[in-house]
Amino acid sequence: MRQYYVYILASKRNGTLYTGMTHNLIKRVGQHKEGRVAGFTKEYGVKRLVWYTTFENVWDATAAEKRIKKWKRRLKLRLIERVNREWDDLIEHQVGGRSGTGQ
Length: 103
Known about the structure:
Elements: E1 4-10, E2 17-22, H1 25-33, H2 40-44, E3 48-55, H3 58-70, H4 73-83
Antiparallel strand pairs: 1-2, 1-3
């Protein structure tokens, strides 16, 4: 069964944020880090994985991504800091199967 990820990248602590969705988190974050994703993340240096969660259904993941993208910045900051107070780059820690939401 395929997993889908909704994730938030940051340029630095309290920096520029980007919300995305993918089925291969490690590969997608690697693409952002290497600058292979043209556009916003490349232009603003948004490369640090600071939050993610998993879904079994692509429709649920897409809905969650769209919902989070509409949130005000302060809500996104709370979401991140609830589980990642130090704004560590979670891709450097164990990613497989665990949720960055602490759920």
